[in-house]
Design brief:
The complex is a heterodimer. Chain A is α/β, with parallel strands linked by helices. In chain A, about 55% of the residues lie in helices and about 15% in strands. Mean pLDDT of chain B is about 75; it is low at about 110-125. Classes of the chains: A alpha/beta, B alpha+beta.
């Protein structure tokens, strides 16, 4: 069973998730602040960490930064009530392999944990929308087209996810295997993390901060 | 030592307070410059708890040396420029300044007792302001009078001007800083009042919305769908209130209009409408038609599909807007379906009138997806 560590500063939510996941994954620890999380994860070496975005003391980003170097195998799935684009994108860029909102159902959450554990990316419709937004439009100087632009197929996959299709439905619709869908989404995740496309920042400021 | 000015300056500059105190004493011989500077610094300085107060700096020997040289320099400049006041002027001024100091120490202590232990406040030193006001005032007046008698050699108009000047200066020294302090305190009170108003506004808001919703949720515990809808509505309201309209896009733009449309449907039909908008463009006849068609499609899905969740996806590209409204409900046979149910007129008719096209994909048991494509005549911003 997948060994899961939960980090969330809301006790109520923590116990709710624990009850939902009981017996479906192996819960090996939990923490409710940044320091305890970093120590706990280093000691327990989980497969997947369910990570809250907003926490006192630096939030989810600080946890990833504190664990990443010593334990690069630990995978992070961000779980948050926040829908703000800059929060989502910044956590993904920090190294999280996926983002789901706290309203996600238990089955979907277990599925998302499995996916992240297998090294794939988990995109909710909203995250897919954010990414399409961030990579939208042409830019004149592309430093690395491999990283700074999405392929037509990747865009197609993301659009379907944004329209509310599950990976399985996307696969059926495009007549490809679920594995191929996962490969496309993982490629998009990599681009999102590596691209220095100035649009990524400009877009964030256009959206919220101006 | 009176008002913690030396300590404060020491903290700010990173110099031992003792050195600062010595500097003030040395400067006092330069025509009481030190005393005046001390009092001025005190009245202008802020309580460390005041959010506007500057941060402390680490102490260092270099800072201390620099500070010492600076003070020495000031003294030398005063002396060489002839501003080194003789005893005749210096001593009376010193007395007047000490008197003024006593007055401030008394009046300012009142302000400070607020965060002192209660036992100390009740002691005879608790309210010294009246005594020190009189004692200090007497010292100031004495100093000024002595100053005037010692300087009789000045003649005529010059002497009168000097007397008036000295009196004004004495009064300013006594009451100026006190008045400044008073204004400062008023500002503090005003900030406190604003804070407490904000708190009560927050309490009122939470009471009107969140607590009411929680009560409703408890009463509707039997109906999960109703509960989810209530929670969702409250979440939306709270987000709007906390983060402002920026989360829902800009007014007059497509994204905001779609968001409003989805909110209305969620409220009317107790369903969840997941909205994803990529890009954004101005709202005109054509894009408005897209929003209305989406509303119609989502309404149909809420009424007939029999599921609690509907996905709306809208993408704005240069020259084109594409929209999808999708549900995973029971679906219907597109070919057998008689025209009606709003599709023919409200969706297809409206979109085609504006130059767009509609395609509907559905089959019994497989949900329904309405796709709207609208090539834009105007330019996209």
């Amino acid at each position: 069973m997948t060994r899961v560590f939960i980090v969330d500063d809301h006790r109520l939510f923590l116990s709710g998730v624990r009850a939902e996941l009981e017996g479906r994954v192996e819960l090996i620890g939990e923490a409710s602040d940044v320091d305890a999380a970093i120590q706990g994860i280093r000691a327990a070496k989980p497969d997947v960490v369910l990570l809250d975005v907003h926490m006192p003391g630096g939030g989810g980003k600080a946890v990833i930064a504190g664990v990443e170097e010593s334990h690069p195998d630990v995978k992070f799935l961000a779980l948050s009530v926040s829908d703000a684009a800059e929060d989502v994108i910044s956590l993904i860029r920090a190294g999280a392999r996926g983002y789901v909102t706290k309203t996600i159902g238990p089955d979907e959450l277990v599925e998302a944990i499995r996916r992240v554990n297998e090294g794939d990316a988990v995109f909710s419709p909203r995250l897919a929308g954010f990414v399409l937004d961030a990579f939208a439009g042409e830019i004149e100087v592309v430093s690395d087209p491999e990283i700074d632009q999405l392929t037509a197929r990747e865009k197609e996959v993301l659009r379907l996810i944004a329209r509310g299709y599950t990976y399985k439905e996307v696969a059926k619709r495009l007549s490809i295997s679920v594995k191929t869908v996962e490969t496309h989404v993982s490629a998009v995740l990599r681009k999102l993390q590596l691209s220095n496309r100035h649009e990524l920042t400009r877009w964030a400021s256009d959206r919220r901060l101006v | 030592m009176f008002g913690g000015v030396a300590g404060g300056i020491g903290e700010r500059l990173g110099v031992d307070p003792v050195i600062v105190r010595i500097a003030f004493v040395v400067l006092s011989y330069a025509g009481a410059v030190g005393v005046v500077a001390y009092l001025l610094a005190w009245s202008l300085s802020l309580d460390p708890r005041d959010p506007r107060a500057p941060k402390r700096r680490e102490r260092s020997t270099g800072q201390a040396v620099a500070f010492g040289s600076m003070v020495l320099g000031i003294v030398l400049v005063f002396r060489s420029s002839g501003l080194w006041l003789g005893d005749a002027v210096g001593i009376p001024l010193l007395i007047a300044a000490v008197g003024a100091g006593v007055v401030y120490a008394g009046t300012a202590r009142e302000g400070r007792t607020r965060w002192r232990p209660a036992s100390f406040r009740d002691s005879p030193f608790g309210r010294p302001s009246l005594i020190s006001l009189f004692a200090g005032g007497a010292l100031v007046v004495g100093g000024v009078v002595w100053f005037l008698t010692m300087n009789r050699s000045f003649q005529g108009v010059y002497a009168v001007a000097l007397a008036v000047g000295a009196t004004v200066a004495g009064l300013t020294i006594v009451f100026g800083p006190w008045a400044y302090r008073l204004v400062n305190q008023l500002g503090e009170e005003r900030r406190d009042r604003i804070r407490s108003e904000e708190r009560s506004e927050l309490a009122a808001h939470l009471h009107d919305s969140v607590l009411q919703t929680l009560a409703l949720i408890q009463r509707n515990a039997g109906s999960p769908r109703k509960m989810a809808s209530l929670a969702r509505r409250q979440e939306r309201e709270l987000r709007m209130w906390l983060y402002g309209p920026a989360t829902a896009g800009w007014p007059g733009r497509l994204e905001a209009a779609v968001q409003n449309m989805a909110d209305a449907i969620e409220e009317a039909y107790e369903v969840t409408v997941e909205v994803v908008v990529v890009g954004d463009c101005a709202l005109d006849d054509q894009t408005n038609a897209v929003v209305h068609a989406c509303r119609e499609a989502a309404t149909n899905a809420s009424r007939h599909a029999g599921v609690g969740e509907i996905s709306v996806y809208i993408e704005c590209e240069p020259g084109r807007v594409t929209a999808f409204v999708r549900d995973r409900g029971k679906g219907f046979d597109v070919h057998a379906q008689p025209a009606g149910r709003g599709i023919a007129d409200s969706i297809r008719g409206r979109i085609e009138r504006h130059g767009g096209s509609v395609s509907i994909t559905s089959a019994p048991g497989e949900g329904c997806e309405v796709q709207i494509t609208m090539p834009l005549r105007g330019s996209v911003q």
